Amino acid sequence: MQKQIIINLPVKDLAKSKAFFSSLGFGYDPQFSNERAAMMIIAEGSIHVMLTTESFFGTLIGKPVVQAKQANEAVLCLMCDSREEVDSLIAKAVAAGGRTPHPPEDQGFMYDQGFEDLDGHLWNLVWMAPKA
Length: 132
What we know:
This protein is an alpha/beta fold. It has 3 helices and 8 strands.
């Protein structure tokens, strides 16, 4: 059986979050999307992010929803095919209203930079040299 990862993220404004991630080039699966949630496709068939309204997310966890602009529990790391892809996605995220919490880090064999989305969730984009 092929394994899949589905990450659930609470968002304040589903329409704004969908527009933000659409500007980065991600699409959505309408079969698993409605007014409370949208299934964002990161890698077809293997990695998806379910953007859920905070009120709906709260029903899934049975405890308060952490406000990611105040505290983070995780950093979502996405491997990219090139340094240029890292830079391009960062530029798109910033243009769409995101922010960069730190400058790019270039270690020769690895290049990365992160962005914070509209709700404060942290994403780290990484490129690693093929022989690293």
